[in-house]
Each structure stands twice: as C-alpha cells, then as structure tokens.
Amino acid sequence: xxxxxxxxxxxxxxxxxxxxxxxxxxxxxxxxxxxxxxxxxxxxxxxxxxxxxxxxxxxxxxxxxxxxxxxxxxxxxxxxxxxxxxxxxxxxxxxxxxxxxxxxxxxxxxxxxxxxxxxxxxxxxxxxxxxxxxxxxxxxxxxxxxxxxxxxxxxxxxxxxxxxxxxxxxxxxxxxxxxxxxxxxxxxxxxxxxxxxxxxxxxxxxxxxxxxxxxxxxxxxxxxxxxxxxxxxxxxxxxxxxxxxxxxxxxxxxxxxxxxxxxxxxxxxxxxxxxxxxxxxxxxxxxxxxxxxxxxx
Length: 297
What we know:
mainly alpha, N-terminal domain of TfIIb, Cyclin A, domain 1, 3-stranded antiparallel sheet
C-alpha cells in the first residue's frame, strides 16, 4: 500500500502512482521514489472484432525496418548448432532449410536486399538512421512492384542515395555509383523512378552542404570557408545557382576564396575532391569571377 510508504525527503504519505511509466511520485515535493514498478494487473489481449484493440495490443517488439520478419522464429545460430552432436546438428540444419523454403518471395527479396544495403551503407560510412530510412523506402518499392522493373541492387543503392538526402548527408551520386558498381545513368533513372512512384519530395541540394566536406579534405582555413559561403549566398540572391550543379558551385567558390586568401591548391585537387572535371571547374570559375566581379591572380 502506498499509504505505508514515507517520503524520505519531506515525510509525506501522499503519493501518486503513474501506471504508464511505472513511477511512484510524492505529491508534496515531487520526488520520484520508484521508477520501475511492476504492473500486476490483468494483461491486455487483442481480438480482431474489438475496435480498441490497437491500444490494448502488446504483441511483439517494436517494428524494425531492417529486420525482414519482426515476428519470425530463428532456429539457433551457428554457435549454438556447433555445440550439438553430429546427428542433432544435421537434424536442425534440415529444419532451418525447411524454414527457409517456407519463406515468401517478399521475405527472400528483403533478405537479399538488406544484405546488400548493409554492405553499401558500411562502405559509405552512413549512420544507421540513413540505413533504416533506406530500408523503409525499399520496402515501399517492393510493395509497389518496382522490383519487376529494375534490379534489386539498383533499387537498393537508389534508396540509400535518397535516404542520405532526406537525412541531410549530401554525397555525390558518383560515390554511390562507385560503391554499387553501377552506371550513374542507371542510378539516376532508379532514383527518379522511386521518387515518382512512391511520391517522395525533397528539396534540391544546396552547395553549402558540400563546403565543409571539401574544405576539410583540402585542409583549408575557416577564413576561406566563410568567404566561399558569402559568395554562394550572393550568387543565390542574384539567381546564378539555378540549373548549376551544387558540386561545381561549391568547388568553384571554394577555389576562388582559397586563391584570394593565398591558400594555393591546384584545380586538379578541387576536381578530384568534388568529382567534377577540371574543364567544368575552370569554366565555372570564369563565370563566377565575372558575375561576382572578383579579381583572382
């Protein structure tokens, strides 16, 4: 009984029991006496004909998009099977094989795709939040039947590229294409198809998103980055960034700023870091110097 408990802080016997959080709180001084009480009440059950079943249901763990079957049964792991005798080991291997046969085509597709997804996300050093978002996007692709129109690997890398944009981790499309060993044209087509069929809308990438990455790779000072930011903001006000690649804009403004601050780097270094050609970088710099009226020696 709560009335038998005495508050160690104020000595009060008046408590509030928050059953949802499992907490016992003193009403007088608000001290939390216990935050892990056990609910000994009747367990909730769910029946299909009950309208409020979704609130009372306690079935299963939270949904994880990276897990193929959240309510599936796994028959031991390799470490457990090695502990068994030869006869029992062969028996359980047959059971596992039978269970694999009973998996639906949807589950088999996800197993193959998520294996590739983990490898690609690891190669690109992307956080798990991006990986989970990509898994959700790919699940929607399978539900829409897009796997009949494109290869699994192409949809996986396109989903990962889209997820990185959604979570604000801008990477060049060339990086994703190199990791998946697919042509950039194929990746671009799948990326646009997913956005169109699923109805995902994202804002265009801003050149400012690439500045820190390029400057860090080239070991440029904060002064150079600040000047490059001012140039990009000035270009946006003048409407000069419309239709231009954000990669080329970020690289060219950073190159001009570095030259003005006498931090010499070659155009080849900027081109390699940004993934644009030296010709594109050189032409973009000429246009920006003329538009911004900057003198570069």
